[in-house]
Predict the 3D structure of the following.
Amino acid sequence: MTDANSSFWAFSLRTFANPSVAKACLDLQDTFGIDVNVLLFMLWCAHCGRRLNACDVGNIVNLVARWQADVVSPLRLVRRALKRPTANWLSMQTQGLRETVKAAELEAERLQQEIMAASIPVTEIGLPDTIDAAKASNLKSYAEFMRVAFPEVHITVLLNA
């Protein structure tokens, strides 16, 4: 893993460790179908002083769309299903499997981030800007690309991350 890859992953872990940020990200994922890793990449680019437009966002989304659909999302669905096992299955019986799937999901997300950072060098994407302006612009560009409007409460949390 290159320094840029590990920097992005470390940034993501630190950022997502904030419960308010994690909740905002997961709400946007569940409500609008956004990719949390792409959202974190938007914030990381801003942290590196890079402002992205909708075309930049599209390139990022297209790079990871198949991996997200074929690997990350199915693992998430299985993990969530195991949280509440079907009748006749006790959660204590499925907890070990759920933890294994959770670890696999996290590794799939780390690999996605590694590919994003390696394929789209943060110093070569977008335009230079201040961190705060880039954050606001990158969130707006991602929402525009997704053809949604992120709720102000979520934007505020992410801007203050």
